[in-house]
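Ticket #4471: complex job returned nothing on first submit. Input attached below:
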Amino acid sequence: MNQTDRKDAINPFGKLNFLVVDDFENFRLSMRQMLRSCGADKIELVAHATPAIQYCTYNHVDVVLCDYNLGEGKNGQHILEELRHKKLLSRSSLFLMVTAETSKEMVMGAREYQPDAYLTKPLNRAMLEKRLGALVQQRGALLPITREMDRENYPEAISQCLQLLPKQPRYKTWLMKTLGELYFIVGDLSHALKVYDEVLAQRELSWARLGRCKVLLGNRNFDDSVEGLKALIAKHPDYMEAYDLLAEGLEKQGKAVQAQQILEKAAEHSPNALLRQKHLALLASTNQDIDTASQAWRQTVTLGTYSIHDNSDHYLSLAQSLSDLSEGHPEAEGAEHAAEALNVLSKMEKRFADDDSIGLKSRIVQCRVHAGQGNQKSAEKLLGDLRAELETLEDIPADLGLDYAKTLFRLGHDEDAKSLLSDLAARYGDNPETLQKIENLLDEPVGFRQKIEARGYNRDGIKAFESGDLDGAVEAFNRALAIVPDHAALNLNLIQVLLRKYDQAPDDHSLLTTCQECLRRLEGLPEQHRQHRRYSALARKLKGLTA
Amino acid sequence: MTDHNIDFSMVLASAVHDMKNSLGMLLNTLDELRTEHEESLSGSSKFNMLQYEAERMHNDLVQLLGIYRLGENNLSAHIDEHFVPDFLSEHMARHVPLLDGLGIDYAIEADDINGFFDDDLLTGVLNNTINNAIRYTKTRIRLTAREQDGYLVLGVEDDGTGYPESMQHTGTLSFKSLDFNSGSTSLGLFFASSVAKLHTEGDRTGSITLHNGGKYGGGVFEIWLP
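Support reply: We reran it on our side without changes. The output follows.
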């Protein structure tokens, strides 16, 4: 073999700092032995995540060789995420994941950070030298680019990529991939598209197809993007990133239910990606599928144990979902959800004790849980404390205020809830997302089961109206309004049907009286409300008829 | 009460997974032993046998898992561009301790070309084929790579007696061709053939060929990738 030319060349490992992370001492020692015989000199050995991260905080490391499975606690992927997330490891340094798996997707499936390479066990010296040699050589060749990426000087990184492309055909894939990503980062979507199209013109490669669909999504070309991703998944049912992107595309098309189904499928294939579970939980909540949402939040919380992405919001959302599930379910199942909710909240308070507002957030939900289980007394007592505590706050933040209003509604303090929400609406007038949440809560200040019921009647009413069955429509809308009397769109729907009936029977003035009752319920409708234009149009029409 | 709804193939797969990882540890330890006791072990046929058989089992289990995923419709080729000479020499490196121990010569004759393939899947195929060649060769093996008729052709050649008449063929193997009665189940060939089939480009599909001859006059395994 041509070992001789390597020995003649300058030792490529000698100047580099290595960090070996493995929980087995034997592996650590044998890895050091192998690295040394390859010419490495500066080698640090650690057994677990904490010392690994600590070492990278205070020392520059060029190559991390990290075992994926480190026993109890954080695994290799957690370390990679933490190092890259906290920028403790520069782009120009290599993170190599050592694993016993022959298929990367099987264990990983995480979408945010990927190692520079996987080294598959069993490893021997000859393999390590070959593989590592090639990777270190590649690192050196690409250094002009990764260095600029570390400095976040993306335009310069792009121009370095373009310069290296004709010179380094061996790294063409890396260069084209990186070039596409860089163009995307700087927002130059048309050049990003060109990169992917150029690759695809030569060969159908899944990463390029994914990149192209990502650009299409960025260009708001949702239909083509979704179609491309569906085809990609049909061909590669184990390509998790394609599922994530497809769910995003479907969501932007307004197809939240389909998006949820796609993520459920992805989570089934690869359940260990925290951000995917979180995305699924949020989607399922939007779809009022609280069972799925709870399950996904539960997973998000569990996966957060060792993850850099762990957040108190995950605990809170899980408790909120469980509280929703427990409401109006005083039997065993409801009690079980209620108990779990309280348990999650107490864990949250312990884990995030540094956060000043954590106790407040927790008690707002606790209060609802007690009320939902018919413990009115404990609920009211908690609410009393809450009121006192909230009064000391100058401005209640939006999310806290919204959740507090929800609790007020649930305990029957509707007027307090409404005044709090109108206060919030005034303060967050320039934030459409918050306004939307306020409107939704005002429209439907009830539990999710009632929400689903009311929405069902609303759909029935619309269907009846469209097929010309006006009486059926009136009956359905009335049923819905019995559950959510202040729902703006519903009241306006009913008015519209009644006016159509009035067209056919102009002598029946009781129809107009009912219309006026509906309108009165919406008197306080703020101008920025989505239904406001429809409201004023119908009000004008009614005025003309009753004048 | 017993649960009769056991998904037996799932149980098998996780057991195989576990065994495969254990063998990985075993192989690592064997490599270390060889390094530590180089003088006394370098020519030991028993030690070589130990390493060869462990390697063989490891390969079989990797393939078994691959075939399991294939059956679950959960295996697809993630084709990427790779520099072929690097790829081949990395795989030869895995077998170097055993090759040296057995006194088998080895060489790589690859054009400086980039190829499109799934490196994980090809790793399984190459390891198995090289391991097989080690078993049947007399004195040497070589890995080859060339481009022919728009295909990337990776080959493993040896100077043994070659494949028996009944095994020589061209194209793809079906699951039915596995013969569990004869000593060799051809599991490796079935896996290689399945991996080849997962590689497609336009309307062209990969395939494997087995024949005798080549530069060394022994068995020649080739995988053709579009």
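The mean pLDDT of chain B is 85. Closing as resolved unless it happens again.
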